[in-house]
Amino acid sequence: MQDISHARLDSSDSEPGLDHLVAVLLRLNGRATAPAGARLGIDAAQVAPAVPAAVRAAAAAAGVDIERALARLGGKLKVYGRTLRSFTAELQRLPQQLHGQLQGGDDAALCRELHTLKGVAATVGVTTLAGLAGEAEAQLARGEDTAEKATCVARVGAAVEAAAAPLAALCDALEGGKAALAAPRIVAALTPTDMALLASLLRTLQGLLQASDLDATSVVQALRAQLPAAAGTRLDALESAIESLEFETALSRCDEWLLECAT
Question: What is the rounded CA–CA span in Å between residue 160 and residue 167?
């Protein structure tokens, strides 16, 4: 699973290990270890993405813990969808690859493949498959005989094949859900109080964008949570620019919006 092995973040080892990695990265960047939303005084539930009912149903059918997976990816539904689609595509060739490594006696490569599978499956919330891959990796590390290895690999291969169709259905549901979320929305008129709050949040956002600080995404989430009437294509475009690390574009959009708030 070479194409998406970078998505592991070593989550394959343990849940606390992933949390520790996030904490270390935040500390090295001079930031607090609390979630960005919490630093802005926003409850985590307020900034959680709105997951369409069809997506939730497809996730349940596929045995995917989508809430935890989204939390690991910062609540980015589009990022999760791309990661899951890549993972699902990689699964198609995995059983054959595992079988080939088994037949070739390449235990080291087989263990690496299972380790990667365990990590990426955990990242996208396919917890049952992640657990099965972890068990198989542990069995191989203990030096099982040839028959036990074959049984172990066959079990993982069967689980992968069984997961493929439900995961593909979840990918389709995610893409349909994103299209629905992107549909034009009617934006309600903002009251003077709303405008004052909007200006305050935009000034905070402006400062973060000038510093190319990714905490800007937290302000956008806070804006959505506190000012749903301000949500619309303008906010979507601003958020998209930030997610693409196009800070100059995002800053320009923010400046324009702030200027309108002052008139």
Answer: 10
